[in-house]
Give the backbone structure.
Amino acid sequence: MLGLGKKDTTLVLLVACLTMLAPFLLNPFPEGSAMAQFNAGYPDLMQRFVIFGIFAIGFNILFGLTGYLSFGHAAFLGIGSYAAVWMFKLLSMNVIPAILLAVVMSGLFALLIGFISLRRSGIYFSILTLAFAQMMFALAYSVLTPITGGETGLQLAPDDPRVLDTATSASGNIPVPGLFGMEMRDTAKLELGSWVFTFNVGYYFSAIVMLISFYLAIRIFRSPFGMMLRAVKSNQQRVNYTGLNARPYTLAAFVISGMYAGLAGGLMASMDPLAGAERMFWTASGEVVLMTILGGAGTLIGPVLGAGMIKYMENIISKINSDILHSWFAFLPDGLEDFMVAIVYPFIGKGWHLTLGIIFMLVVIFLPGGLVEGGQRIARLFRRKKQAKGDDASKAKQPAE
Amino acid sequence: MGILEVKGVNKRFGGLQALGDVNLSVQENKVHAIIGPNGAGKSTLLNCLVGKLIPDTGSVMFKGQSVLGRKPYEINQMGISRVFQTPEIFGDLSVLENVMIPCFARRDGAFRMHAIESVQSEHEIMDMAMTMLEDVNMAEKRDMHAASLSRGDKRRLEMAMCLVQEPSLLLLDEPTAGMARADTNNTIDLLREIKEKRDITMCIIEHDMHVVFSLADRITVLAQGTPLVEDAPENIKGNPKVREAYLGESA
């Protein structure tokens, strides 16, 4: 279907189902129950899942296919956000032109940065991209304040031109981003018994954009271009002696993945129209590396899984506090309860980074292929069991013959 | 006038004169072997031909065009393919993909952005690669990971990758290094077959005299960076100078 093989079609359909049904799947616990805090089905977080999913899918096109580890990809995310907010300020609150400009601008910057950084490979490439990202962060934070808003970030104002739109909405407020009349923050709630499911325009818009990005990424992976990129990763010497110029291939991959990052940045600004320099900080670049490796670099679905996992932990685990812990361990005798809380406490709340670090270490050591490899191993285990059962059954039959 | 003309090539590495005034003329559709003891400058010479090294002085002309200053991929696109001493293949890719990549390079040139078409729909390229794999008896291994092939198979695969480009000149850097006798004989047969089937010029660097004398039409003996003699194989065998510089050592 759509030029994909059977397996890939299944994967796209699976991801489509998961994203479309996410408001249900991520809210398995009834409202008001003790487990409700593990519900992730609220618009803000669901949007982040898919937006960082796009960011990681794009990063994986560069890192997973060519093996070039960019350590400054957040710069393109930031550029995308700034470009989108400027479009909201100058043109209209429609998200389409904003996102288009975000993609184009980040693509142009990726072309420039990639052209320079790709002169080197390995650790030198990583350092070059990191240097560029930090320079851009510093510029956005200080010198370029008129364009970027500096420390406060770039925000909408009632006196923005907005040539195609009104500067203020009917009620005199700053208008909100929308898509031909639908506001991104519009939300419908469905209450079934004690369950509450939230459907948000912004989430569904981002989810559809993610599905398209995911589909395009699969096409790239399965194309001759994708094969060349894997060849570059595998043996650059042989690429050169096979009559292929590796530079434009890697540059194209760099620009494509920069555009994905810009798309994610533009979507972020569309959900919440402000952009700050901290989006370009190096920890943000590190985060997307973690997402990709955690999920499985070079796999199709891995980066999306990694992005989801990290964002879930960031938002859910960090919200657990000591009171909640005490209520969990309330069934234990007092002394033991305090002891258990003391042990678990460093891993929750602000300590979620510790949990993430441990999980990341475990994955890298025991599952070098990331969560995807974990899934494959489990699947293989089940298949083997099934096969063993089948063998037993056929053996049991034979003596009877 | 040969297909490859090397004239007055010098190359120094610091104080070491690796190549001193090397002249070489490789005739079309012939197998030209370059032999010589260790450190004679054979590999340096080869690296000067493919753009990995640039000679200090002298000229290297291929089909009447200079290759000096060109990048390795440009020289390959001119029609020179190279087999390495240790096979250089795409270990992470399947055997079939390994052969498809040079097919793409031959058809589309050094770069083409074909990011949306599927590899599966490139029937022409697939057929070309499969035919080549059948030629080297590796068709049944098409889906194997290239890294998991045996050493001999890796060599054959690399050879297939070079041949599928139908180069005018194939450079082979010790194609039988580290091979068992049986594998060496297979390689000789393979190269002979290639020579008979295709209009191809080969330039072989080799240690193994058995290989050299079974294949070469012409032999250049290199010693300490300079060509000692260039002659037909039967004359080389009897040449006392060569015996002293090279064969004498191994006898």
In short: The radius of gyration of chain A is 24 Å. The mean pLDDT of chain A is 89.
